[in-house]
Amino acid sequence: DQQVKQNSPSLSVQEGRISILNCDYTNSMFDYFLWYKKYPAEGPTFLISISSIKDKNEDGRFTVFLNKSAKHLSLHIVPSQPGDSAVYFCAASTFVRGSTLGRLYFGRGTQLTVWP
Amino acid sequence: DTEVTQTPKHLVMGMTNKKSLKCEQHMGHRAMYWYKQKAKKPPELMFVYSYEKLSINESVPSRFSPECPNSSLLNLHLHALQPEDSALYLCASSQGPAAGQGNNEQYFGPGTRLTVT
Which pLDDT score, from 0 to 100, does residue A8 have? Predict the structure, then answer.
């Protein structure tokens, strides 16, 4: 049962244009959302996050938007660069049932390719 | 410093071998995690350690045995693995184990690429 969904397995964008990666979730208890970037043969790298009490968070070229009513978040990369080519994972956090521990639920990832 | 280190980078082992994966972080994080990742799939949570105690075991087979010798180190002992256990094994840490806010910003190591023959 996939609670975090990234429905686009791949996205191809020209250098300098905007990349928009989308993520949907089903669990209304998620209260913190994260994006990770992963290059082949490396571990995921934390990119940017957003709390459920906000609708936007910006860090340089990266902006994450959260629409709680639609249970949807997106990552915007402007301008896109060839070095941004990687797999991007969306993740969401909530309590483990019956405890105060948190855990992350990951989407399946979107392969972003930025071409010159 | 947001570095999590893992050794070895690559490991090939037979089904009767015993080996260990190691993970280290010096960020003062109190939660550490083991994940397994297969190609083109998201990371799957295996274990969570909170303040050096095992807090979550996601029904992982006993041929995987985690250990947390101290707050900076996390080991994963492997014994009698199957070829289907071949995967990238990722270690991660976060500031705290509690849900919410920055505690859930997990920082990952580069992983150990495990091949079971």
Answer: 95
Residues of B with CB under 8 A from a CB of A: 2, 4, 6, 40-43, 45, 48, 50, 55-56, 90, 92, 97-111, 113
Q: Does A47 touch chain B (CB under 8 A)?
A: no
Dump the DSSP string for A43-94: --EEEEEEETT-SEEEETTEEEEEETTTTEEEEEESS--GGG-EEEEEEEEE
For residue B49, which residues of chain A lie inside 8 Å, CB to CB? Answer: none
Percentages helix, strand, coil for chain A (3-state, rounded to 5) are 5, 55, 40
* CA nearest neighbour of B65 among B87, B50, B81, B41: B81
The stretch B47-55 carries a mean pLDDT of 91
pLDDT tens readout for residues A77-103 = 999 999 999 999 999 988 777 667 778
CA distance B113 to A112: 23
pLDDT for res B24: 97
CB pair distance less than 8 Å for A100 and B40: no
Determine whether the interchain pair A101/B50 forms a contact, defined as Cβ–Cβ distance below 8 Å.
yes
Note whether A27 contacts B: Cβ–Cβ < 8 A. Answer: no
Mean pLDDT of chain B: 91
